Amino acid sequence: MSEITLRCISCNTEYGPEEIIYSCKKCGGLLEVRMNPPEAGFDDFSRRAFGVWRYREFIPIEEGAEIVSLDEGGTPLYRCERLAKWVGVRSLFIKYEGRNPTGSFKDRGMTVGVTKAKSLGSKAVACASTGNTSASLAAYAARSALTCYVILPSGKVAMGKLAQALMHGAKVISVKGNFDQALKLVMDISRNMGIYLLNSINPWRLEGQKTLAFELVDQLGYVPEFVAVPMGNCGNISAIWKGFVELEDAGLTRGKPRMFGVQAAGAAPVVEMLRKNLDRLSPMKSPETVATAIRIGNPVNWPKAVNAIRSSNGLYDAISDEEIVETQKMIACLEGIGVEPASAASVAGVRKAVSSGSIPKDAEVVCVCTGHLLKDPEEVISVCGKPIEIPPDLQAVSEIIRPEQTPLL
Ligand SMILES: Cc1ncc(COP(=O)(O)O)c(C=O)c1O
Ligand SMILES: [Zn+2]
User: Fold this and answer.
1) Which mutation among 180, 233, 379 tests ligand 1's pocket best, with the greatest number of atoms within 8 A of CB?
2) Are 132 and 106 in contact (CB under 8 A)?
């Protein structure tokens, strides 16, 4: 494997891969992992199982490292014809990240991040989380016998995610504050107490998440025109973009997609910044949205996400909670794909962009649906209502059943 370095995206200072740092020591900028383009290509990949480690040569973990895996990645790419009609676009695919081991895309990052933690000799790992990061880190920490601490914003984490973190044995700490405050706290803890930090500010994690781009090219056989991604802390869109850039730099693809970053209207600091064409982010003090996974007012990875959107001639938009919930229901009812609210933001964003004309009607779009429906059962009950209750007799049931009822679309 070629030489691996950590490089500051602001001042280009380089650090060795063994350094435990999460930002540039000189300027505080974000770090990214750099290596020369590997020699391998899709023929080599095709001999391996479909998943994150199929792209081994592009994952900058030294040979011989003990890989911590739960068979993550390798998620389905569903062609969605009925949903495409509702959205108003010729062709729409969902990359369904809910099919990962703990039910979200975070597993792609954790297999690499926790492998790195082990190879650095860490004994304990930690994260702040809107829920999915904690569920994933707890599982991968359990798999590799690491102690795990997770810090969650009190009362704002979906039940399914909390249940996962608890059952996998993490020490779960609930902070009376929001995600941004929880992240600041965990960054202080990791600096002062030598606990390895696995939020998406950790650049090794993004190396796993970039494989989503590789899988899309594997599945489609070409580079898609648009890739829509919900944005919270903005690690995922940055990682997917990095994947496409590396594929092209290695000569394995030609061209890159236009990246479409979607935020919830109540938590949309990046969209605000792009709308006003500013060069710095103004954090939102009290973010609020039904999509708790992306309820983030001060996303740490904003410089990488803004770069992904600007360099790809991309798109951005903010979506209301009503649109998120309506879209979540349509994805579930028209396609049988169960996603959590944050995931529906990508499809909702595309629908709005098609109706305003910023995505042409004859386009082909991939929407990344980041997490599973069962992550947030309380939201489902609150937006769908309770089951119809009846006495156990035929008369009562026959008043409800209408065999001639037609499907939604
Ligand atoms: C389901 C889901 N979608 C989207 C996101 C946003 O990802 P990122 O923080 O990398 O922007 C998250 C992050 O927690 C998530 O859990
Ligand atoms: Zn720097």
Assistant:
1) 233
2) yes
Taken as a whole, the chain contains a residue count of: 409
**Is residue 408 one of the residues assigned to a domain?**
no
Position 237 in a domain: yes
pLDDT per residue over 143-168, tens digit each?
999 999 999 999 999 999 999 999 99
- In a shared domain, residues 159 and 240: no
Q: What angle separates helix 321-335 from helix 377-384, to the nearest 10 degrees? A: 90
CB distance 41 to 111 below 8 Å: no
Strands 77-79 and 171-175: unpaired
- Contact predicate 236/24, CB 8 Å: no
Give the position, in ligand 1's atom list, of the atom nearest the Cα of 133: 14
Owning domain of residue 150: 39-68+105-204
132 CA distance to ligand 1 centroid (A)?
A: 8
Looking up residue 349, the CATH number of its domain turns out to be 3.40.50.1100
Q: Is the pTM of this model over 0.90?
A: yes
Q: How many domains does the chain have?
A: 3
Binding pocket residue ranges, ligand 1, CB within 6 Å: 104, 130, 132-133, 200, 230-236, 293-294, 340, 342-343, 370-371
